[in-house]
């Protein structure tokens, strides 16, 4: 279950900053910060991890030299009060530091799990939209569904695709790549 808190250091301590994240335990949970609010999610399960690995492999093969694919945990830290860690992200090489991505990624991917679905569908989606992310993908590893949102000219996400099972999505952003949801849970060649 995902939990949210602003009172980590006692009542009246105020919003948290990215500096507060350094004191979080290394316990396998994901600690994120959104507008000063701490979001704690449990470690992902096996199927979730498989989707991350297989989608990551597909994206890595297609990724142009001027971009880089990174897998969580890697901090997207556009402000002192926000640090998100998408399951996968693609960013311009020039935008990255060794420690974080201080601007919006070109692509943020979240793999849904029972404890994070509402957070990923609503809160995180809205945060990525405000941040200026060009493409946001949600993968449901149980239902084998990929939902794709892309920012329109005004910066608002529009749902541009929902593909299921053996259907294919031919992405244009941030680079051309073919994704078939059912292939994200099978080992290549099987």
TrEMBL record:
<protein>
    <submittedName>
        <fullName>Uma2 family endonuclease</fullName>
    </submittedName>
</protein>
<dbReference type="Pfam" id="PF05685">
    <property type="entry name" value="Uma2"/>
</dbReference>
<feature type="domain" description="Putative restriction endonuclease">
    <location>
        <begin position="21"/>
        <end position="176"/>
    </location>
</feature>
<keyword id="KW-0255">Endonuclease</keyword>
<dbReference type="InterPro" id="IPR012296">
    <property type="entry name" value="Nuclease_put_TT1808"/>
</dbReference>
<dbReference type="InterPro" id="IPR011335">
    <property type="entry name" value="Restrct_endonuc-II-like"/>
</dbReference>
<keyword id="KW-0540">Nuclease</keyword>
<dbReference type="InterPro" id="IPR008538">
    <property type="entry name" value="Uma2"/>
</dbReference>
<keyword id="KW-0378">Hydrolase</keyword>
<dbReference type="GO" id="GO:0004519">
    <property type="term" value="F:endonuclease activity"/>
</dbReference>
């Amino acid at each position: 279950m995902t939990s949210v808190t602003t009172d980590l250091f006692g009542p009246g301590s105020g919003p948290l900053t990215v500096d507060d994240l350094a004191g979080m335990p290394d316990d396998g949970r994901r600690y994120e910060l959104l507008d000063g609010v701490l979001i704690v999610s449990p470690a992902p399960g096996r199927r979730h991890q498989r989707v991350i690995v297989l989608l990551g492999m597909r994206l890595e093969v297609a990724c142009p030299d001027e971009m880089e694919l990174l897998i969580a945990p890697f901090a997207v830290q556009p402000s002192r009060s926000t640090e998100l860690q998408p399951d996968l992200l693609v960013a311009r090489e020039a935008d990255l530091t060794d420690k974080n991505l201080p601007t919006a990624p070109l692509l943020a991917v979240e793999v849904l799990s029972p404890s994070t679905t509402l957070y990923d569908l609503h809160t995180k989606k809205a945060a990525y939209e405000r941040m200026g992310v060009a493409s946001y993908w949600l993968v449901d590893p149980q239902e084998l569904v990929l939902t794709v949102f892309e920012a329109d000219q005004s910066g608002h996400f529009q749902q541009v695709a929902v593909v299921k099972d053996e259907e294919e999505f031919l992405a244009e952003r941030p680079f051309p790549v073919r994704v078939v949801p059912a292939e994200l849970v099978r080992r290549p060649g099987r």
